[in-house]
Specification:
The protein starts with a strand and ends with a helix. Helices cover about 45% and strands about 15% of the residues. The chain is built from ten helices and eight strands.
Amino acid sequence: MKLIDSHCHLHDSEFYSENREEVYKRAIEAGIGMILVGTDERSSAEAVQFAATHDSSWAVVGVHPHESKMGYAMVEQLLRDSRGNDRSNIVGIGEIGLDYYYDHSPRDDQIRALEAQLQLAIDYNLPVSFHIRDAFDDFWPIFDNFHGIRGVMHSFTDNQANLERGFGRGLLVGVNGISTFTRDEPQVQMYATIPLDRMLLETDAPFLTPAPFRGTMNEPKYVERVARHMAEVRDLLLDDITLVTLENTKKLFRI
């Protein structure tokens, strides 16, 4: 593998149905592995099923803050079923967190779901893919109540101060197609200066398609375009980016 897309939703029948196998094949032919991230009970189960039947694919299970009012009991059942299974393909919990931008679920429900799933991460010794939007003031005190959590701040677009707070807690940061098209100068500078040993690359496919493919559906193979952009803005070779971020991903998810 040249790269692992550390966060995508190729498994999810809501987004990919008729063309799923074609998209998967294009990723594999490009040397791209993929981490399939759940957003609710249904998609988490689909991630496990897809990863079990496709090479170079791994599942992350959890309930997104938007869906937290719908419950998360099946997440624990999926983890229970995987315990003791040497062939289990579940490598993390996610994407979980807090999202106050939309408030699709009440904030109390979001907090309860986050706390319960952080406990699962500890119980099963798994890393976490975090989704935090406009909610860091509430997120950090909750995070600090759980010791030994390792993980990544997925699709990070917040400020430098919260980036540093995450680094201070041992978290990594997920960089995706936003880095290729944002016109927000502080974001541009932030993406260009994230230490390589703290960076994972992702697509969040089918969302956030990188330039120059804007206007088309995102897919895991485009993670290489994110890598190329990171190399260009840092005046580095592509291999300088791919080798380090691949190892970062493998280490975090113990692949």
